[in-house]
Specification:
Elements: H1 3-6, H2 12-40, E1 42-45, E2 52-55, H3 61-75, H4 78-110, H5 115-125, H6 144-182, H7 186-232, E3 237-241, H8 250-255, E4 259-260, H9 262-268, E5 277-281
Antiparallel strand pairs: 1-2, 3-4, 3-5
Helix pairs in contact: 2-3, 2-4, 2-7, 3-6, 4-6, 4-7, 6-7
């Protein structure tokens, strides 16, 4: 099994970086929550070491919720989650650049590459067709068509991330309230709160990152195929490449190397944890593909 088959979008390294950032951010949130629980909850021994009577020290459940939301805003949602949405933007750019390079390559190989496609590269990227470090170029997003789509993708990720934190915050307030009412050991309360950060925060944020980064890459590929078709005049469809590593869905395995029009491809991408890729395919030049 080749690396390309396992990671057809070639974004694994970037996805791992995003997951590491998620762990770091939510780990910091856990740290401040545990510190708050152990520092601010007053307790008085009643019967044994497991029974506690809590006093609020001027801190109500509502005030805890406000405090927690401030921490979430500072640690997780700062700058509209730019620390996470930047990965979506970068994979979107990679999808554009990869597809542009693939289209140029096949047009050159077939002899179709001409002054029209050369103009396409200059106008769209603001650079030459030689592509010096193309995956690091900021040029694709200077085009309003691409920038608008990138902004939509980032907003989608932030909205989902915010939804995760709202669910997590609500469950944590319930856990704290239950701990106070039942006289639980503060350390037990802290463990339960930390568990919510792991099981709701980290788990769901990881799902968002994995899903949306691949979706952004494929969205960029489809958009670039559309722009290239309009400029070159040659029909461009999308070829589905499945991540073949034994963990793929049977339905996705069945799609491997099948050809779809761009609307069909757009409707197929974006399933949770999907790692498949869609690449440009010009039916008129089919004999030039490997």
């Amino acid at each position: 099994m080749t690396k390309k088959n396992k990671d057809p979008t070639s974004t694994l390294t970037m996805r791992l970086r995003a997951l590491a950032d998620i762990r770091r951010r939510f780990k910091e949130l856990k740290r401040v929550v545990i510190r708050w629980v152990l520092s601010y909850l007053n307790r008085k021994l009643l019967v044994n070491a497991e029974d506690f009577e809590y006093q609020y020290q001027d801190m109500s459940i509502d005030e805890f919720q406000e405090w927690l939301n401030r921490q979430i805003e500072l640690i997780i949602l700062e700058n509209r989650g730019e620390w996470l949405t930047k990965y979506t933007r970068d994979t979107f750019k990679r999808g554009i650049m990869k597809t542009k390079s693939e289209i140029q390559s096949i047009l050159t190989k077939s002899g179709f590459y001409n002054d029209i496609t050369s103009s396409l590269v200059s106008d769209t990227l603001g650079t030459s067709s030689s592509f010096v470090s193309p995956l690091l170029s900021e040029a694709p997003l200077s085009n309003p068509i691409y920038l608008s789509r990138a902004n939509l993708l980032e907003t989608r990720v932030f909205t989902q991330l915010k939804g995760v934190t709202e669910t997590m915050s609500s469950q944590m307030s319930t856990i704290l309230s239950d701990g106070l009412l039942k006289g639980k050991n503060p350390r037990a309360v802290a463990r339960e709160l930390a568990e919510r950060v792991d099981k709701i925060g980290i788990t769901r944020a990881n799902l968002i990152a994995r899903t949306e980064m691949i979706n952004a890459h494929n969205t960029g590929s489809i958009l670039e195929a559309s722009v290239s078709q309009e400029t070159s005049g040659i029909e461009i469809k999308m070829r589905w490449l499945t991540a073949l590593d034994g963990r793929e869905r049977p339905t996705h395995r069945a799609r491997h190397k099948k050809i779809y029009d761009r609307v069909e491809a757009s409707n197929l991408i974006g399933e949770p944890n999907c790692r498949c890729s869609v690449t440009a395919f010009a039916p008129a030049l089919a004999k030039y593909y490997d």
